[in-house]
Amino acid sequence: MRSSDPPPGPAASRSLRNMKIAAVAAVALGLVVAQRLGLFEVFSEPARIKQALVELGPAGYFAFVAAYAALQPFGVPGTIFILAAPLIWPWPVAFALSMAGTMAASVVGFSFARFVARDWVSKLVPARFRAYEEALEKRAFFTVFLLRLIFWMPPMLHVFFGISRVRFQTHFWGSLAGYFLPLLATAYFGEKVFDAMRNAPPSVWIGMGVATITIIVVFWIVTRRSMRKVIPS
């Protein structure tokens, strides 16, 4: 990322160092708690997730969000959590927990990239994300919203936002807006879709596949046109 900011003074450097230490401590604490609760083992075997979280009772809410926040930024697919939630809890609870976990994971990934390992992780960002640097500088909120709506929460997108010059508040609220509709739809329709597709004939699967591909293509075309408006060619 380009930067024309002057070098930070001693007070700013100390503050940045303290924030890095706090971020590292928070991530380490989350990983330790997840390990002590046995969450690594539970979420490595999807068949055990529902039983384990239900047995925890109300503490299962915290375990779900904590595991999501600690594991997703470092490689565990967030879709495991998002698809599991509506199969475990009623959809309003599933939506609230999915949103809380997704936002927590996004903040952890963003903070880790910005305050802890900026120089190292900046080399890992794919070119497909770097193509949006100019758009992020011109329309930060809209670009964060659009990228979250399209890509959701891959760890490298957390990193991209973390090493960019986008403000934390813009990243937070843009991500929240981008996640809202996909997570709401997944929470509300997730269990219904699973139940409907469980005994569906092959023709239904084929139709769903064609419809999905069509929606993706149309959405991609609309998105490309939107991004061209942000980045004039």
Descriptive overview:
- The chain has 233 residues and is an all-alpha fold.
- It has 13 helices and no strands.
- α5 (78-88) packs across α12 (168-198).
- The radius of gyration is 19 Å and the shape is globular.
- Residues 1-7 have low confidence and may be disordered.
Task: Give the % helix.
Answer: over 70%
Model regions low in confidence, pLDDT < 50 over at least 5 residues: 1-7
Q: What is the radius of gyration?
A: 19 Å
* Global structural class: mainly alpha
Form type: globular
**String of helices and strands:** HHHHHHHHHHHHH
Kindly report how far apart the N and C termini lie. 20 Å
The total beta strand count reads: 0
User: Strand content of the residues, in percent?
Assistant: under 5%
* Nearest-integer average pLDDT: 76
Number of separate helices = 13
- In terms of quaternary structure, the protein is single chain
Reported for the largest beta sheet, the result is: none
Question: How would you briefly describe this protein structure?
Answer:
The chain has 233 residues and is mostly helical. It contains 13 helices and no strands.
Give the secondary structure arrangement, pairings included.
Blueprint: H1 10-36, H2 39-43, H3 46-56, H4 59-71, H5 78-88, H6 91-116, H7 118-121, H8 127-130, H9 133-138, H10 140-151, H11 155-163, H12 168-198, H13 202-230
Question: What brief labels describe this structure?
Answer:
13 helices; mainly alpha; 81% helix; disordered N terminus; 233 residues
